[in-house]
Amino acid sequence: MAIPAYKPPRANRYDVVIVGGAVIGSSIAYWLTDAGFDGAILVVERDSSYEFSSTALSTSAIRQQYSNPINIRISQFGVEFIETFRDRMRPFYEGEAAPDLGFREHGYLYCIPPEGVEAARARVDLQRAHGAHTVFLEPGPLKDRFPWLNVDDLGGGSWGARAEGWFDSVGLMNGFRRAARRNGAEYIDNQVTALTRDGDRVTSVTLATGEVVECGVVVNAAGPRAARVADMAGLSIPVEPRKRHSFVFASATPIPGRMPNVIDPVGAFVRPEHDLFLTGNTPTPDGPADTEDFETKHDEFEDYIWPALYNRIPQFDALKVRQFWTGHYAYNTLDHNAIVGFHPEVGNFVFANGFSGHGLQQSPAVGRGVAELIVHGSYRTLDLTPLGFDRIVRNEPFLEEAVI
To answer: Is the dihedral of CA 354, 357, 362, 367 positive or negative?
Structure first.
C-alpha cells in the first residue's frame, strides 16, 4: 500500500493549535467546532495511527465513585455523553450508521477493608447526594449479592449499580475526531518540537518538518508528553508517563451472574470481557517510564495480580493469560488529578493534562470546558476551576480519595 504524501498545514497561522489529537485533544476540537467557533483550528498528532496512544491502550471505564463533587459531576456528564453518543454523531456519518460505544453498564464494586468502612460510607453518602446510585453493602449482603466473592477480610463494599461500566475508547475518540474534522478542524500527522514565547504569550509552534505556525491559543493535550510541551514554553507541570499493564485471561471456572468491575483493596481490578476477563493493577514499583517504553512486565501478573484475584475470587484458581498490553498514564505526581485551564501568566497557553488514568471518562466534560474557556473566557456549564494550574503553583493538592 502506498504511503500517503505528507500534507503540510494549509495555513501559516491558526487561532487555536492543539498539541495532541487523541481523545482529549479531539474532544476539545469537537466542542470548539460544535460551539460555532469560527476561528481556524489545527490539531497536531504525532502518530495518526494512535497505536501507542493512552486512549487506544486504555481499559475504557467510567465511574461516579469519587470523593470530590466536581469529579462526580464530570463523570455524570461523561455517562450522558456516552449514552447519547450515537445521536450526537449521526450528522457526521452521512450514509453510514453512527457508532454505538457498547456501554456495558455493569457497575464498579470497591471492596472495602474494615479500617476503611467509615470513609467509604461517607463517600457513598456524598455520591448519592450528588445523584449517583452508589450503595454500601455490609459483608453479609455483599456475599448475598455476589456469592463468588470472598468477604472474610472485608468490612463491606461500595457498589455502583447504575451509570458505571466500560465502553469503546477508540470509538469515542474517532467520533470526536470525525465530527471535529467535518466541522472544519484541520488534523496533521506531525510533531511539535518547539514553541516560541514572547513575554506572556506563545506566538508560534515549530513542527518536526520545519514549518513555523503562528498561533492565537495553544492547547497542551499531549498526554504523557505533556511536561515536554510545557517545557517548550518555559513552564513546568508535575506530569510524567507511568506504565500500566493490562492482561486478558481465561478462567477454568466461570463467574455466574452480572459481574461488575471489582476493585480489590490492594489495587488490582478485574472485570468480565465476554467469556474472558480483563485485569490490571498499580505496578510494583510504580515510577516514571520512558515515553517509548511499552514493554509488559509479565511477573506483575504472576507475583501480584493473580494472588490478589485468587484471594478475592477463589474461582480464579486456574487462569491462562490470552492477551496483554502496556499503556501509559499521564500521571500527575502532585495529586493524581487533571490540570485544566489557562496558565495565569502565559495567557494563551491552555493545559489539559495529568489525568492519571481518568482522561477517557473525563474527556467529554473537559473538552467542553476548555472550549468554553477559549470561546467565552469562562466556564459556562461545569466549573472546572478547582482543576486549574494555580494549585500547582501553590503546591496544594486537589484532594480525591478514590484514585485507582
So the answer is: positive
Residue 1 has pLDDT above 80, yes or no: no
The answer on pLDDT for 2 being more than 50 is: no
Q: Are residues 132 and 144 in the same domain?
A: yes
Burial tier of 142 (Cβ tally within 10 Å: 0-12, 13-18, 19+): buried
**In degrees, to the nearest 5, what angle opens at C-alpha 14 toward C-alphas 9 and 17?**
85
Taking the chain, what is the end-to-end CA distance rounded to the nearest angstrom? 42
Determine if the peptide bond prior to 91 is cis (ω within 30°): no
Q: Which three cell numbers stand for residue 174?
A: 474517532
Cell numbers describing residue 68:
470530590
Residue 47 phi, psi dihedral angles, 5° rounding: -140, 95
The residue among 257, 304, 282, 277 whose CA lies nearest residue 149 is 257
Q: How many residues does the chain have?
A: 404
> pLDDT band at residue 36, thresholds of 50, 70 and 90?
confident
Is residue 357 situated within a structural domain? yes
Domain that holds residue 154: 108-165+240-327
